[in-house]
Structures
1.
Amino acid sequence: MGLVYHANYLVWLEVARTDLIRNHGITYAELERQGYGLAVAELTVRYKTAARYDDDIIVNVTLTEARSRSLRFEYEVIRAADNVVLATAYTALVSIDPKSGRPAALPAPIQALLGKVRAT
């Protein structure tokens, strides 16, 4: 059909989200080494028009909410050639202790770092 499979958008969102956090000084791997994980608790995607194979895609991501145990990211998936918005989305993530799987507050330095991500 020449259209990008809808689940690929989820991968693009994850890459954009991890890049945003990494570009501000911490990686998911470092969070895990410190004993924390970020689990997707909610995801909504609104598809507006299809991406086609070989389209160059831009994903704009913004951290819109940073709490001690949860984060919310909002996204725009855009076709680079004509700046058409292909989809909008948001994800809500919960900070967890990977050993127990229970919610866990992020340490203050990480919360401060994420606060700076949100401010940019």
2.
Amino acid sequence: MWPAVGLAFFLLVAWLLSDYAKTIDWDGVGRALAGYSALTLVAAAGLAALSHLTYASYDLLGRAYAGHDLPARQVLGVGLVSYAFNLNLGSLVGGFGFRMRLYHRLGLRAAPIGHVIVLSLVTNWSGWLLLAGTAFAARQVPLPDSFALTALGLQALGVAMLTIPLGYIALCYRSRRRGWLWRGYAFRLPSGPMGLAQVALSSFNWLLIGTLVWLLMPRELGYGTVVATQLSAAMLAVPTHIPGGLGVIEAIFVASLGSAAAQSEMIAALLAYRAVYYLLPLAFAAVLYFSLEAAGRARRRSAESLV
């Protein structure tokens, strides 16, 4: 039943997006894209590369947490591949599927792979909670007229969100109970410094993403507003299960900031963002994936020759 419901929802979203696309001034979008300077695009590519490398370093924390001894270059390679495919094909394919396959091919057992994946998930969303909670509490997010939550309600939500990453750091430092069991899965609480590093690293990565989007946006949009809107859009796109939140992120930006800047320029900025942050890293990750597969095959042949 659920696959049919998911397919129906996807088709509905696709129909709404195709209908919405008819209202866009595509000539204006083309002019805005052509207006980007080479310096701006190079800076955007640099931010994208740094962000992907930062996300891949979550797996270095995972290596320390799980206690495996794969070389750092291979760990970063797996992180880069999984993140690029995660963005473009969804978390089940990238965040889980590619990590499971590549780490298994490189010799890791299921338990440490699971520890790496869980730590990466906690790392990613802990930083999001810290930044989004701060943005909501500071009333940095512009609310559409149709939004059900009031500004005060959103501020209260932001304060509540902030308690989660801060409480997590305090728990990592202070809790005497280090082992937890949830639905049969044993979870060991990271050390205090590692918990702090998780939140700091993830916050840095989300700021890199927001800065990249702001760099491409019309100049009349403030930095804090763009970053806060990007953080909101990233979470609101998750329940749709559409890879990369395609169309959803664009709709949220237009609904929130459509009165503050030209719609065609915002669409152009988000298209440029997708090209630089999603598509170019995917091409690189495809090449890197086959390199890691080759390393896995070489490792197995070496192990078989010793038997």
3.
Amino acid sequence: MEVSERFTRFLANLNLTPEQRADGITKHSGVRQCLNARYYGSASLANSFLVGSWGKSTEIRPPRDIDVMYVLPYEVYQRFESRPGNKQSQLLQEVKGVLEGTYSTTGMRGDGQVVLVGFTSYSVEVVPAFKLKNGKYWICNTNDGGSYKQVDPDAEALAVKTSNDITLGNTRDLIRMMKCWQTFCSVPLKSFIIELLSIEFLNSWQYKGKSSVYYDWMVREFLGALVAKHSYSTVVVPGTLEIIVLGDAWKSKADTAWERAKKACQFEAAHQASLAGTEWQKIFGTDIPTG
């Protein structure tokens, strides 16, 4: 098996099935319509949009959460500002209550920044938000007495798209593959961080616009770049320029994956496809074929 065929089949195996995609659309559409009926008197999908992997076209199977940002009317902000106590927690509880009126048998919780609607096949995470005049959004932070946090989902999505365009599709492919590693090896590294690290890596990688023939090297060298990071290394969030410190909880998993990727690449170069596949499966599981 050639490298290109192996990784093409791997990425195809990560695609959601038509049934999974249709189910996800049904779930997030229903949630968005429910909220619109309450806050805008409409059954449309307006006033909300997909963020996270579904909003950036980096989703993989098995299905994960679907993230929806729901933009509330300014009048709702005014109403909660007049209340004492943790306004953000109260707001999340109101949104949760609206959804419980329609999904009474579905488990829900509202804390942190989201209201989680726990469907069996998918969880839909609703992020209530208020749009600001600068085009960014305030979302709830219920911790430490409550506050609003400024986010820029448009800038985050644009960063992925721009990188993906420059690399001729390699950015989204790398993100999706490394999310598979994250799941299979239980790597304590958030998907959002993987996105930012992938963009950073490909920005300076010499083969960033090459075909899938180079994907074994891309995985190996991304992991090598990750291993070179320190616990105090940071990534910068597009739009808001928030700085996130990586920490080192992921370090041992990255070290192990890098060593396995180096072995796999050696086997690929020696045309020992089956042995290479065995090493790749230690990183990604059976979604990547051995031969």
